[in-house]
């Protein structure tokens, strides 16, 4: 498998943190701090708030035991090593710098409201559907646009999607026992979601059982002209690219289409094609236009992916 670096370098790398193991300190209890706390309170994190003045919402969270509240001014000794994340929401610039320096000396990640140069992390716009969480970030450049995009994606998601994912979670062990290989399991779930979509109703269980009987897709080979501009590819291709298990291409070219392929797909150089098992999952071959006729003759089962969607 090839290790490749392509495209612009990311300033912010997205991570999902197990909040059941996380201690968070919030310094300040103004409007911005309250907004962050509203979301954080929905996690399993242990949350401590230190602020001289507090809102009604924060007082309620304290009275119910959801947060630990110290209603006083913060001091440097409050920056304790047992915290993994700290949010600083105070307008005192000098204090921000002192607290951040203390946290950094202890290896604690800090988010300072309205001070991106002091931040070790930022909070993205979030869509929460229980097990499905979508995070959207513009690297802090255009948070209003991120919020607008979040609203558009929210409108696309079925209201019962969380129930569907609970159902899938219950069925994972059954499918792991039913199918021996990872590629067979991926093929099953692709078929099931294609038939079921986002719905969760009386038909979902029937479609699940039907998928175990009907799905037979265990391998498929696709070919795309590696020189074709990405913006000329039909949008219908994108779901297929996200289903690719392995991709074969000239690693010296690192075509832009790689950005649209599953990041955990195995990547091979075109020189290794003869040794790649094309019977295991979905394979994408990126080849120059003059190489495609030879490949289609060599692999008659292969499909010219873009032609299936009619340019």
Descriptive notes:
The chain is of the alpha/beta class. The chain folds into four domains: 1-123, 3-Layer(aba) Sandwich (Rossmann fold), CATH 3.40.50.720; 124-157, Sirohaem synthase, central domain (Double Stranded RNA Binding Domain, 2-Layer Sandwich); 161-214, no CATH class; 219-309, Tetrapyrrole methylase, N-terminal domain (Cobalt-precorrin-4 Transmethylase, domain 1, 3-Layer(aba) Sandwich), CATH 3.40.1010.10. 33% of the residues lie in helices and 18% in strands. Helix 6 (182-196) crosses helix 7 (202-214).
What are the key terms here?
311 residues; alpha/beta; Double Stranded RNA Binding Domain; five-stranded parallel beta sheet
Topology:
Elements: E1 23-27, H1 31-40, E2 46-50, H2 56-63, E3 67-70, E4 85-88, H3 93-105, E5 109-112, E6 125-129, E7 132-136, H4 143-156, H5 161-178, H6 182-196, H7 202-214, E8 219-225, H8 238-241, E9 246-249, E10 266-269, E11 281-287, H9 292-298, E12 303-304
């Amino acid at each position: 498998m090839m290790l490749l670096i392509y495209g612009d370098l990311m300033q912010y790398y997205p991570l999902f943190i197990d909040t059941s193991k996380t201690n968070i300190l919030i310094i300040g209890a103004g409007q911005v701090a309250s907004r962050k706390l509203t979301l954080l309170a929905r996690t399993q994190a242990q949350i401590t708030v230190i602020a001289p003045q507090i809102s009604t919402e924060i007082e309620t969270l304290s009275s119910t035991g959801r947060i630990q509240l110290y209603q006083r001014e913060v001091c440097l000794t409050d920056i304790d090593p047992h915290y993994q994340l700290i949010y600083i929401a105070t307008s005192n610039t000098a204090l921000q710098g002192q607290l951040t320096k203390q946290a950094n000396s202890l290896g604690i990640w800090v988010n300072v409201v309205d001070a991106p140069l002091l931040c070790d992390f930022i909070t993205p716009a979030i869509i929460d559907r229980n097990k499905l969480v979508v995070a959207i970030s513009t690297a802090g450049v255009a948070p209003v646009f991120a919020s607008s995009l979040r609203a558009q994606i929210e409108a696309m998601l079925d209201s019962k999607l969380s129930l569907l994912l609970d159902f899938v979670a219950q069925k994972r062990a059954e499918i792991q026992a039913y199918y021996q290989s990872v590629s067979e399991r991926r093929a099953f779930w692709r078929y099931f979601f294609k038939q079921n979509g986002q719905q969760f109703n009386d038909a979902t269980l029937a479609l699940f059982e039907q998928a175990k009987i009907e799905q037979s897709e265990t391998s498929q080979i696709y070919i795309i002209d590696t020189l074709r501009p990405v913006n000329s590819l039909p949008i219908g291709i994108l779901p297929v690219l996200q289903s690719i298990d392995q991709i074969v291409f000239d690693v010296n070219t690192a075509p832009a289409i790689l950005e649209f392929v599953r990041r955990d797909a195995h990547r091979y150089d075109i020189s290794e094609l003869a040794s790649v098992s094309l019977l295991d999952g979905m394979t994408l071959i990126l080849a120059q236009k003059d190489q495609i006729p030879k490949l289609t003759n060599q692999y008659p089962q292969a499909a010219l992916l873009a032609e299936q969607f009619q340019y």
